[in-house]
Amino acid sequence: MAEPESGQSAFLTLIGARTVEKREDLFRVSLLLEERHTNPNGVMHGGVMTSLMDEAVGGVIAYARGLDVMRAAPHSTVDMNVSFLSAARAGDELIVEARPIKVGRSVAFAEAEARRGDGTLVGKGRFTFVIVAPRP
Amino acid sequence: MTDDLMLRVPFVHSLGPVLEERRRGYARMSLETASRHAAQDGKLHGGVLTTLMDSTLAIALRELRGAGASRHSSVEMNATFLVPVVPGQRIVIEGRITHVEPAVAFGEADATLRDTGEVVAKARVTFAIQQDGA
């Protein structure tokens, strides 16, 4: 889950990524990949992409629900399914876009796409959130 | 503590995990979670868990296939987050390879709290295995 009005998570900052667009229908997170983001195969570690996706989908659901509503009844990721479609390397820009699929009263769904700067699709993810009951 | 190529990857190294055990088809890591691993709500960021579950399974598969084997890469991951983790708690990630074919392998990972053994996240990962000569 994210509270995007205060910026971004400590973990996203640790990675070196930044949230560049925040709307109720779209969140965009960007990262210029460095050698430190690669795995022993020399390509982007999958955890980098899943981290950016989780951040972006949490943010877009927060905006779609409304920040006041979200504060009263926070949402949390409970399930994610991510496909790793193409490799990305140091020097590539990785752009993750997240969009809400459906926001209900107790559950929400969102999807994310990750692309390299040249537009190549690198990964796709679908995320499910639970919304906890409003605080009395 | 066990050294491993995966733990020398700067991104994984920056998280601070300890590889406790690795053998054919199995690996176990632990992590003392901290505020730098947090999401905006102060709980452990899901990306920390997915990174370590993916990494643990990649090590387990390499141990199974041998050091000279061709490359394998994650192509699909399904993770379920069961319980929020509060930074400061130590988590343990265990990865087990459940099935291997020449071109594909499957693994399952669990993340638990060290103190209580409570399962906080589970994942299934599918790996594609590079074919020799491909």
Q: How would you describe what is shown here?
A:
The complex is a heterodimer of chains A (136) and B (134). With 136 residues, chain A is α+β, with helices and mostly antiparallel strands. Chain A has three helices and six strands. Chain A has helices at residues 10-15, 46-65, 67-72; strands spanning 18-22, 27-32, 75-84, 93-103, 107-116, 121-131. A six-stranded antiparallel beta sheet of chain A has the order 1-2-4-5-6-3. In chain A, strand 1 and strand 2 form a beta hairpin. Chain A is elongated and about 50 Å long. Residues 1-6 of chain A have low confidence and may be disordered. The model of chain B has no long low-confidence stretch (mean pLDDT 94). In chain B, strand 5 and strand 6 form a beta hairpin. The termini of chain B are far apart. Chain B contains three helices and six strands; from the N terminus they run ααββαββββ. Chain B is of the alpha+beta class and 134 residues long. In chain B, 22% of the residues lie in helices and 41% in strands. Chain B has a six-stranded antiparallel beta sheet with strand order 1-2-4-5-6-3, covered by helices on one side. Strand 3 of chain A pairs antiparallel with strand 3 of chain B, so a sheet runs across the interface.
